[in-house]
Every structure is written in structure tokens, then in C-alpha cells.
């Protein structure tokens, strides 16, 4: 999608601090970290949010979680939280599917 911030980041058109990359997935540190470790994992193909996941495009989501398991292991993160905000009320500010991975501090529940 031509005017999507995360499509541009995944394509390398906007600089980011890369954590992991392969053919279908890109992971990079959040510009405004909410924990000592805070990175985002996105599909390279544009999907607007979890609400747009279908049987046809869902394969990448399983891959994203395998990437999260691998990257957190490599970073030495044993405990962490995975979050995806869907829609304005939940706090989604970028309309390209992304999973926040947060760790390195105590977490509270329920989230705000
Ligand atoms: P959301 O608010 O949609 O759940 O998450 C979007 C996240 O993207 C936010 O945590 C925000 O800090 C991050 N973000 C927004 N713009 C950029 C950017 O240009 N670069 C990076 N690395 N992160 C960004
Ligand atoms: Zn996009």
C-alpha cells in the first residue's frame, strides 16, 4: 500500500532499527518504547489489522509467532507480552497489522 508507514518501513524506504527480516516478515524496534525491550513484528504484505485476517492470508500470522519465539529467545527474553491493537478505541495508530513484543519489566494486568 503506497501511503502506508509500515509498508514503507518493511520496504526499507523509511529507516528503522531492524531486529529480524525474511521474505514475508519484518521486525523492528518501536520508535517510542514502552518497555526496555519493545519491538514490532509485521507482515511485509499489507494487512490492515487482525480484523482483516482471513483463511487466505493467515499463514503469515503463524510465521510471525514463530519469529517472535525465535527473536525473543535470541534476545534472552524469557518473559514478555505480545499485543495487537485493533481499531481506534483499542489504540491502533498504524493501519498495518503489527504485533508489539514487550519485555524486560514487570507487567500489570489488565492492561490500560
Ligand atoms: P499501535 O499504536 O498502532 O498499536 O502501534 C504503532 C506503534 O508504531 C507505536 O508503538 C509507535 O510508537 C510505533 N511507530 C510509529 N511510527 C513509527 C516509526 O516511524 N518507526 C518506528 N520504529 N515505530 C513507529
Ligand atoms: Zn501497509
Describe the protein.
The protein is of the alpha+beta class. Helix content is 21%, strand content 22%. Strands 1-2-3-5-4 form a five-stranded antiparallel sheet, covered by helices on one side. A hairpin with a 3-residue loop joins strand 1 and strand 2 (25-29). The longest helix has 17 residues, at 59-75. It binds guanosine-5'-monophosphate and zinc ion. Guanosine-5'-monophosphate binds next to strand 2. Zinc ion binds next to helix 1.
Brief descriptors of the model:
112 residues, 22% strand, binds zinc ion, 2 helices, alpha+beta, 5-stranded antiparallel sheet, globular, binds guanosine-5'-monophosphate
Give the gist of this structure:
This protein has 112 residues and is of the alpha+beta class.
Write the layout of secondary structure elements.
Elements: H1 5-10, E1 18-21, E2 25-29, E3 37-43, H2 59-75, E4 80-83, E5 99-103
Antiparallel strand pairs: 1-2, 2-3, 3-5, 4-5
Zinc ion binds next to helix 1.
